[in-house]
């Protein structure tokens, strides 16, 4: 995983230069939580039934909780955390960097120390469940996903594992999802590892386009989810 602390930059029509860089906690956390809330609207409706549309503080509670959840994973495990950002330009009308996409990857333990060093910081919100949230529903839905994931991982063995991937809705269909996914595939190739993920219906095509295959389909709170894997092959090895 040679490039974890570096930034790579490409040019994207309409938004100018986009960069891929490690997400740096705590400064990035509110933006990452906000992307989670904006991108996963269906889960907001399921998990935050008590949020008041007219009360912005309940929305902020959700943003904080989503950010804290990502941080908790960094603190508790070997996780790599990548952001896609835009650079300020006349083309996009921005005067500062904006985080437009995020992915979090579970990576082999050999990388753990490096990532922990990057994010060696305190974030005490992690355990706090906002009053607008239905924690019973959350446990129920996460239980379904964990059970289905375990079935596949028991069979396939552990590879690198995508834990979240989202592009801000205002920046969809500009290659941000593909950039975040490619980052993880590049690391998996370097580690000679397979990649596992749970896809939403919206994300499924992105993963199929990059060679992931569907191993399971199941319902989570009325929404289809897909267990998918990308299998590492050395260069020159046939696809099947
Ligand atoms: C799924 C998701 C991550 C895709 O992100 P994205 O940034 O829009 O993805 P990309 O832009 O890389 O690819 C999406 C499509 O845009 C196309 N595209 C990429 N760059 C483009 C450009 N510059 N101009 C036009 N189209 C473009 C891609 O070819 C792709 O098309 P296809 O699906 O027909 O093949 C995003 O919609 C999202 O966050 N959804 C909600 C959260 C979610 O479901 N996440 C997945 C969890 S597993």
From TrEMBL:
PROSITE patterns from the UniProt entry: GNAT
Domain of life, source organism: Eukaryota
InterPro entries referenced in this protein's UniProt entry, alphabetically: Acyl_CoA_acyltransferase, GNAT_dom, Trichothecene_AcTrans
SUPFAM superfamilies noted in UniProt: Acyl-CoA N-acyltransferases (Nat)
Single GO MF descriptor: acyltransferase activity, transferring groups other than amino-acyl groups
Residues in N-acetyltransferase domain copies: 102-234
UniProt feature, compositional bias: Low complexity: 1-12
Stretches the record annotates as Disordered: 1-20
Official protein name in the record: Acyl-CoA N-acyltransferase
């Amino acid at each position: 995983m040679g490039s974890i602390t570096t930034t790579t930059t490409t040019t994207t029509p309409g938004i100018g230069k986009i960069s891929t860089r490690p997400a740096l906690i705590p400064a990035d956390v509110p933006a990452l939580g906000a992307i989670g809330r904006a991108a996963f609207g269906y889960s907001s409706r399921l998990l935050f039934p008590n949020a008041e549309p007219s009360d912005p503080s309940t929305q902020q509670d959700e943003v904080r909780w989503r950010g804290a959840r990502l941080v908790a994973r960094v603190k508790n495990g070997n996780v790599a955390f990548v952001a896609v950002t835009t650079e300020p330009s006349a083309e996009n009308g921005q005067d500062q960097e904006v985080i437009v996409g995020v992915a979090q990857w579970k990576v082999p333990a050999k990388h753990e120390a490096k990532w922990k060093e990057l994010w060696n910081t305190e974030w005490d919100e992690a355990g706090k469940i906002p009053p607008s949230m239905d924690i019973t529903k959350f446990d129920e839905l996460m239980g379904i996903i964990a059970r289905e994931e375990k079935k596949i991982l028991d069979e396939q063995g552990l590879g690198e594992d995508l834990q979240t991937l989202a592009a801000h809705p205002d920046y969809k269909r500009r290659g941000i999802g593909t950039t975040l996914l490619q980052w993880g595939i590049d690391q998996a190739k370097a580690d000679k590892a397979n990649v596992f993920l749970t896809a939403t219906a919206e994300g499924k095509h992105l993963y199929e386009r990059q060679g992931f295959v569907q191993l399971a389909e199941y319902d989570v709170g009325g929404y289809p989810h897909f267990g998918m894997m990308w299998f590492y092959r050395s260069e020159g090895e046939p696809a099947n």
